[in-house]
Amino acid sequence: MKLNNKVALITGASQGIGRAIALNLASEKINLALVGRNEAKLKTVADECIKFGVRVKIYPLDLADTSKIPSLIESVKADFNSLSVLVNNAGTYANGNPFESNLKDWDYALDLNFKAVYHLTNQALKLISENDDGAIINISSIAGQMTYKGGEIYCATKYAVRAYSNCLFESVREKNIKVTCIFPGYVNTEMGRGENLDESKMIQPDDIALTVNSFLKTPLTACQTEIVIRPQRTPYK
Ligand SMILES: NC(=O)c1ccc[n+]([C@@H]2O[C@H](COP(=O)([O-])OP(=O)(O)OC[C@H]3O[C@@H](n4cnc5c(N)ncnc54)[C@H](OP(=O)(O)O)[C@@H]3O)[C@@H](O)[C@H]2O)c1
Questions:
Q1: N or C: which end of the chain has fewer CB within 10 A?
Q2: pTM score of the predicted model
C-alpha cells in the first residue's frame, strides 16, 4: 500500500517496539495516533516523530479498561478524519501459576493483551473500511507459537491474538485490508531484557519496525498473515 499521508494508530507507543514502529512510520510520512498510559513518554515520542514533518496526536489511556476504546476511536476520527493502519502492540508479561487463587494478573493480561485487541479492531474497522486499503498488525509473541512451564497467562493471551488475527484476515481480506500477526522472540526492550540475556544478541526494536514497514509495502496482491522473528544468534549468556 502507499504509505505517504496515511494515518496509523499505534498502541504501546511510549517505548520499546511501539516507539520504534512510530519512528519508522513517521519516516515514511505516515501521520500518527499514539496510545499508551504514560503521557510524558508519549509526548517525547511524538516530539521525535514530528521532526519527520508528520501530524502526531497522543492519547494517554489504559487500554485494559476496554470501555474507553470507543471514545478513543471517536477522538482519532475527530482529529484525523481517517485511519488506515492499526498496530495492536501494547502488552504486558505475566507468569502464570495454576495453583494461585488471586487471578487479578490473569484478568489484567487477558484484558490488555487480548480483549483490547479485538475491541480496538472492531472500533477501528469502522474507520479503516472507509478507505480503499488498510492494514492491521497484531504483535503476538513466540509465546503465541510455543508453550512453556509458567506461560499459562502469557501464552494463552498470545495464542488468542494469533487465532483472532488469522480469522480476522479471512473476514476483511476482500476489503483490501491486510492483516498480519508478528511473533517475536526476545526483543531488547524493558519487557524483554533479563540478567541471563545478552542485549546485543537480542532482536532490536528497530528490527520489528523494519518488518512492519516491509509488510505495509507488500503489493496489494499478497499478505504475510504470520511473521515469526527469532534472534539470529542465541541471546542466552
Ligand atoms: N520484548 C520482548 O521480548 C517481546 C517479545 C515478543 C512479544 N513482545 C510483545 O511486544 C509488545 C510490546 O512490548 P515491548 O517489548 O515493546 O514492551 P515495553 O517496552 O514494556 O512496552 C510496552 C508498551 O505497552 C504500553 N502499555 C502497557 N500497559 C498498557 C496499558 N494498560 N494501556 C496502554 N498501554 C499499555 C506501555 O506504555 P505505558 O507504560 O505508557 O502504558 C509501552 O508503551 C507487547 O505486546 C509484548 O507482549 C515483546
A1: C
A2: 0.98
